[in-house]
Design a protein that fits this description.
The protein contains 8 helices and 14 strands. It is α+β, with helices and mostly antiparallel strands. An 8-stranded mixed sheet has the order 4-3-5-6-7-8-9-10, sandwiched between helices. The protein has a 4-stranded mixed sheet with strand order 11-12-14-13, with helices on both faces. Strands 1-2 form a two-stranded antiparallel sheet. It starts with 5 loop residues before the first helix and ends with a helix. 46% of the residues are buried. Bound molecules: 6-O-phosphono-alpha-D-fructofuranose.
Length: 331
C-alpha cells in the first residue's frame, strides 16, 4: 500500500473544511519545500565548505553559522512569491520581513520560524531542526506590523517542525483541533510520506531531558525537581537522561516516547533561553494536540501573552502527568 504523501494529506484535510481557500495548504506545502531544500544543503554542506561561522552575531547574541543564514534565506525565498503570506519573522532577523508586492501586502498569514535550530550540532553531524508557526494577521485593512506577530500560542493556525536526523521528518498540526501527523522524506524522489499518523504522546515513561550543567543557575525548587527525576523519586520513577542540545530532536523523542523536556529559567536569566513565538509556542501546540502539555513553570505555554518578537520563556513540555508534576513541584 502506498502511503499518502504530505501534499495529498494536506489536500485531504483541506476538503474536510468547506470554507478552506487552500491558502494554508499552500503555506504548509511551501514549508515542506523549505525543509527539503535545507535537508539537501545539510547533506552536502561538508563538501561545499558551508560548515562553520559567518563571523556575524545575531539579534540573540549568538554566532551565526553559514547554514543558519542559508536556512533563513530558504524560508524567506519560498514565501516571497506566494501571495498569501504578508510577512515573516525569523530567529535570525531583528525585525519582521514584510513582502512588498501588492498581492503579499494583502496576504492574511504571518509565518514565524527558527530556520535552523541546534546549529551547534552542524559541525559534529548531530541532529538539527527547523520550527515554524503560522498566524493570521490581526487586521488586513492596515499594513502588517510586528503587532500581528505578537499573538498567544493558542491562536496559531498551524505549527510544527522539520527534524533533520538520520531521516528527515515533517511534523505538523493545523487548526484548533487538528491531529499531529509525521511524514518522512524519501530522498530518492523528494517526497514526504505519512509515517506517524495521529501521534499520541505516551503518558509517563520516557526520558527527562535538561542541560544539567545549568544546575548552579537554577533556583532551589528547580534543583529539587531535576534531582527527583535523576534519583527516580518522580512519580514515574527512574528514567534515562537524554539531551542532544537540539530542541527539535529532544522534543521529537519526548513526543514519540513520552517523558519531559525542560529548559527552566536561570538565576541571571529568569526567562531562560528558548524563544516563545517560534520555539516554545509551536512545540506546545504540537504537544497539546498529541495529548501532552506545556508550561512555563506556572502558566500554560499557549496562554502566554508575548510583548516582544524574540522574547524568551521557560519551557516544561512533555507527558501531561510529568508537566503537571513539574508545575506542582515549582509552586
Ligand atoms: P544549552 C540550540 O541553541 C537551542 O536553542 C535549542 O535547540 C536547545 O534546546 C538549546 O538551545 C540548548 O541550549 O544551553 O543547553 O546549550
Amino acid at each position: 500500500m502506498t502511503r499518502p504523501t504530505l501534499i495529498e494529506h494536506i489536500r485531504t484535510t483541506e476538503r474536510l473544511h468547506p470554507g478552506a481557500t487552500g491558502e494554508l495548504s499552500r503555506i504548509l506545502a511551501r514549508l515542506s519545500l523549505a525543509g527539503r531544500m535545507i535537508a539537501q544543503r545539510l547533506l552536502n554542506a561538508g563538501f561545499l565548505g558551508e560548515h562553520g561561522e559567518t563571523g556575524i552575531v545575531n539579534v540573540q547574541g549568538e554566532r551565526v553559522q553559514k547554514l543558519d543564514e542559508l536556512a533563513d534565506a530558504t524560508f524567506v525565498r519560498v514565501f516571497e512569491s506566494l501571495g498569501s503570506v504578508c510577512a515573516v519573522a525569523s530567529e535570525e532577523r531583528a525585525k519582521i520581513h514584510a513582502f512588498d508586492d501588492d498581492e503579499s501586502k494583502a496576504g492574511k498569514y504571518c509565518v514565524l520560524f527558527d530556520p535552523l535550530d541546534g546549529s551547534g550540532n552542524i559541525d559534529i553531524n548531530g541532529s538539527l531542526g527547523s520550527i515554524f508557526s503560522v498566524h493570521q494577521r490581526m487586521d488586513v485593512e492596515r499594513p502588517v506590523s510586528e503587532a500581528d506577530f505578537l499573538q498567544r500560542g493558542d491562536a496559531q493556525v498551524a505549527a510544527g517542525y522539520i527534524l533533520y536526523g538520520p531521516s528527515t521528518v515533517f511534523v505538523y498540526t493545523a487548526g484548533d483541533d487538528g491531529p499531529v501527523n509525521g511524514f518522512t522524506l524519501d530522498r530518492s524522489i523528494g517526497e514526504f510520506f505519512l509515517t506517524h499518523a495521529d501521534i499520541q504522546m505516551p503518558a509517563g515513561g520516557g526520558a527527562y531531558s535538561v542541560n544539567e550543567s545549568n544546575e548552579g543557575q537554577w533556583d532551589e525548587k528547580t534543583k529539587e525537581l531535576v534531582a527527583s527525576f535523576r534519583q527516580g523519586r518522580a512519580p514515574v520513577g527512574k528514567r534515562a537522561a537524554r539531551y542532544t542540545g537540539a530542541l527539535v530532536a529532544d522534543f521529537h523523542r519526548t513526543l514519540l516516547q513520552g517523558g519531559i523536556f525542560l529548559y527552566p529559567g536561570l538565576v541571571d536569566r529568569p526567562r531562560g533561553k528558548l524563544r516563545y513565538l517560534y520555539e516554545a509556542a509551536p512545540l506546545a501546540k504540537i504537544a497539546e494536540r498529541a495529548g501532552g502539555a506545556a508550561s512555563d513553570g506556572s502558566r500554560r505555554t499557549l496562554e502566554l501573552e508575548p510583548t516582544e518578537l524574540h522574547e524568551r520563556c521557560p519551557l516544561f513540555v512533555g507527558s501531561r502527568g510529568d508537566v503537571e508534576y513539574a508545575v506542582e513541584s515549582l509552586r
